[in-house]
Design a protein that fits this description.
The longest helix has 23 residues. The protein contains ten helices and six strands, in the order αβαβββαββααααααα. It is an alpha+beta fold and 327 residues long. Among the domains are: 96 residues, Glutaredoxin, CATH 3.40.30; 124 residues, Glutathione S-transferase Yfyf (Class Pi), Chain A, domain 2 (Up-down Bundle), CATH 1.20.1050. The protein has a six-stranded mixed beta sheet with strand order 4-3-2-1-5-6, sandwiched between helices.
Length: 327
């Protein structure tokens, strides 16, 4: 290969890598014909209800989570805000860069990987084995693997054992407004950063990044006269947005090419992120080293060298935040 003309060597290597990259991206992040990332739907959607197969109970359910995953992080934040640490235990998994799946730190029910547990719970299962998982230890089954559902379950189903049952993150009077915010932020921001990072064409990326920053600009403007998305109190809309914002400057800004602006540079979004981070118990759910290792160390198609950056310094998240009056 050393004797080949540089131009031929570069073109050959580029063609080989592009083919491999497209193959790996197709496995990791399915896309439309136009190259837009399309997130598959979650398949386990049961609820915890007094009259259903999964009744509320203390110490019966577990959350299977990856500490670097923003979707799993939502459940940890909700669990902390409600004071459910003694009621819902945590079972961590870590991503395997070589196997492309979540792996248990210690064997669980004879399973080494999360896909094995999914197949044990539902024989013949061929879908994605994702986190978070709300696991029922009594029936050895998956209750739910959709983070949007799980945080609602945690908010309302276990108040009898919560240390902060008075905290209602999804009050009836605000449900319509919360749902509107969730619809706006999911497509453009929560999933929008992935649509940027996993885009397989320039046009798909351009669409995603424009929608992302249009949404962030609008959210920043809305936060000019209120401390949280729906007013004076934190809600599930804030929880869902927080875990994306927490990772933004560290991962999405560089690795996912979302580099028009950092969150900390926004007039209102920057303080908003700090305000949420400083809520009691929230900082303890934030494992920035796991975030960096999970993204930079495991998304091989986006970072083939696996080099993990040393920064940034997140000390700014602890700086005091001024109270924003609600207009």
């Amino acid at each position: 290969m050393a004797g080949l003309p540089p131009g031929l060597l570069i073109r050959t290597a580029k063609q080989i890598w592009t083919t491999l990259w497209q193959t790996m991206m197709g496995q990791m992040a399915p896309s439309s014909k136009g190259g837009d990332y399309q997130r598959p739907e979650s398949e386990f959607r049961q609820r915890v209800t007094p009259d259903g197969p999964y009744p509320p109970a203390a110490e019966r359910y577990q959350l299977i989570v990856g500490m670097g995953c923003p979707w799993a992080h939502r459940t940890l934040v909700t669990r902390s805000l409600k004071g459910l640490e003694a009621t819902i235990s945590i079972l961590p998994v870590v991503p395997s860069p070589d196997e492309g799946c979540w792996v248990f730190e210690k064997s669980f029910r004879g399973c080494r990987t999360l896909p094995e547990l999914y197949r044990q719970a539902q024989p013949g299962y061929k879908g994605r084995a994702t986190v978070p998982v709300l696991w029922d230890t009594q029936t050895a089954s998956i209750v739910n693997n959709e983070s949007a559902d799980i945080i609602v379950i945690l908010n309302e189903a276990f108040n009898e054992w919560a240390t902060r049952p008075e905290v209602d993150l999804y009050p009836d009077t605000l449900k319509a407004e919360i749902d509107q915010w969730n619809d706006r932020t999911y497509h453009a921001v929560n999933n929008g950063v992935y649509r940027c990072g996993f885009a397989q064409t320039q046009a798909a990326y351009d669409r995603a990044v424009a929608e992302l920053f249009d949404a962030l600009d609008a959210i920043d403007e809305a936060l000019g006269n209120r401390p949280y998305l729906c007013g004076d109190g934190v809600t599930l809309a804030d929880v869902r947005l927080f875990t994306t914002l927490f990772r933004f400057d560290v991962v999405y800004y560089s690795l996912f090419k979302c580099n028009r602006r950092r969150i900390q540079d926004y007039v209102h979004l920057g303080p908003y992120l700090r305000r949420l981070y400083q809520l009691p118990g929230v900082a303890e759910t934030c494992d920035i080293e796991a975030v960096k290792h999970d993204y930079y160390g495991n998304l091989f198609p986006l970072n083939p060298g696996g080099i993990i950056p040393s920064g940034p310094d997140l000390a700014y998240l602890k700086t005091p935040v001024e109270v924003v009056p609600h207009a």
